[in-house]
Every structure is written in structure tokens, then in C-alpha cells.
Design brief:
Blueprint: H1 4-19, H2 27-35, H3 42-46, H4 53-60, E1 66-71, H5 78-82, E2 89-96, H6 99-109, E3 115-119, E4 131-137, H7 146-156, E5 157-168, H8 176-187, H9 196-204, E6 207-217, E7 220-233
Parallel strand pairs: 1-2, 1-4, 2-3, 4-5
Antiparallel strand pairs: 5-7, 6-7
Length: about 240
């Protein structure tokens, strides 16, 4: 089978990345302008770029008959990552601001009556009933008021509920020049790296586990992008802390 169609599709995505995210318009308008031309190829390309999602969801340990919220769901690819675990989810709300990506998410959710896709703002949207688990996959760095997202996620959880986050990261102990280059490169596409994200998550959810990793970047051999995954528990009640630190 020829690889030409894949390479051509990747080239279109890379061209959008090189052009960067627009600087004008609202956050929602910038997302739509950036992602609409690459939505069809979004998952295939980013599956090689966005690492740690499987590990985060595994550690999230979704309970039976759970109510789940995903903030910044994008194309809804988490449905495929969850696979058979979807069978034990009672209600799953997926939230995003980008219509082009939500079109893909709704296609994936077709035939899954427990999945509800919403075009909404993750800084203040709330589910009808509290959630057992909330997760955010490679979205926190793209939301200007990310502190409000963390606070909102904590508020929507049941006491003892869990939050999972996976995202790019700016290592606190990283080389200053390397960190500056990572920040500049990612910011061009609307992704704003910070060491503060993981710091606030650890402060907000004292019972937690996390890992900081690096992973390959497509078409840039030898370049390893820093990322982390984090799972924490809302600290309202005495918690089961097996495996936590």
C-alpha cells in the first residue's frame, strides 16, 4: 500500500502547524480557524505526538456505573482509547469549544447513548449531576484561563472523585534555553507551556500520582517533547490512597 496519501495529509497538518494559530479573534474563533482545515487528519497525526493518554486513563481507574466528564475533548478520540471500558460508564459528557473537532466527536459518539457532546467553555460548564471522574487530555495548555478549568473540574467532582490530566510540560529543572525554545515553538500553535500547571494540580489535589516523561515528535528525529500525566482525588473526605503519593 502506498504511503503517499498519509504523507500528503501529514504535510497539510504540518503546514497548518508552521502557519500557527491565528492571533486575532476570540479563543473559540482561533481554535476553529486553526483546526478546521486539519480536523479530518487530526487524530492520525497527533496519535504520534500526544503521548501518555492511555497511562492517565488507566490510572484514573474509572469505577462501575461512573459519570464522566472530559473537558477539551477535541475529536472524541478518548472513546476509542477507553475501548471496552465504555461499557461500564453510565454517563459521559464531552466538552469542547471547536465546532470542527466536535463534528468528529459527534460521529464517534453515534450509537453510544451514554455519550453527550457539548459545545461549551470548560472554564464554567457544569454537568447536571456531579461527576465521578473528570479528565483533560492535551487541552489545559491551550486554554488561556487554565486555572479556572482546574477549579471548575474540582467543583464538578463528587467528594472523593478523581481528576486525570495529561499534557505538555515545562520541566522546572529543565535547561533554561531549552525551556525557552519549547515555549516559543509550542506557543506558535496556541499551546502555552508552564511548570505552574502541574504545581497547581498537585496543590489542589494533595492525594495524587503523576509522572513526567518525554516522547518523540513526528518528523523531528531525536527531539523529545516533555509531557506529564497526573491523577488526583478531590480532598473532601478521607481517601483511599493505594498507589498515591
Amino acid at each position: 500500500m502506498s504511503l503517499a496519501p498519509d504523507l500528503a495529509a501529514d504535510a497539510r497538518v504540518l503546514w497548518r502547524l508552521l502557519r500557527g494559530q491565528p492571533k486575532q479573534g476570540s479563543h473559540a474563533e482561533r481554535l476553529q480557524a486553526f483546526y478546521a482545515p486539519q480536523a479530518e487528519r487530526y487524530d492520525a497525526f497527533r496519535a504520534r505526538l500526544l503521548h501518555g493518554r492511555e497511562e492517565m486513563l488507566e490510572q484514573l481507574a474509572i469505577p462501575p456505573a461512573a459519570r464522566i466528564v472530559e473537558l477539551g475533548c477535541g475529536t472524541g478520540s478518548s472513546l476509542e482509547i477507553l475501548g471496552e471500558r465504555m461499557q461500564k460508564i453510565a454517563h459521559f459528557d464531552q466538552i469542547d469549544l471547536c465546532p470542527a473537532l466536535l463534528t468528529m466527536a459527534r460521529r464517534r459518539a453515534a450509537g453510544l447513548p451514554q455519550v453527550h457532546v457539548h459545545e461549551a467553555d470548560a472554564t464554567y460548564w457544569q454537568p447536571e449531576l456531579p461527576a465521578d471522574c473528570v479528565f483533560i487530555s492535551y487541552a489545559l495548555t491551550m486554554i488561556p484561563d487554565w486555572r479556572a478549568v482546574i477549579a471548575n473540574a474540582c467543583e464538578m467532582l463528587v467528594p472523593g472523585g478523581r481528576i486525570g490530566v495529561v499534557d505538555f510540560h515545562l520541566p522546572e529543572d529543565g535547561n533554561r534555553l531549552a525551556n525557552a525554545l519549547w515555549q516559543k515553538w509550542f506557543a506558535h500553535d496556541g499551546v502555552h507551556l508552564s511548570a505552574d500547571h502541574l504545581t497547581l494540580l498537585r496543590q489542589t489535589f494533595p492525594h495524587h500520582q503523576f509522572a513526567r516523561q518525554r516522547a518523540a515528535v513526528p518528523y523531528l528525529p531525536g527531539l523529545l517533547a516533555p509531557y506529564y500525566w497526573f491523577v488526583g482525588t478531590r480532598p473532601d473526605l478521607p481517601l483511599q490512597t493505594d498507589g498515591m503519593r
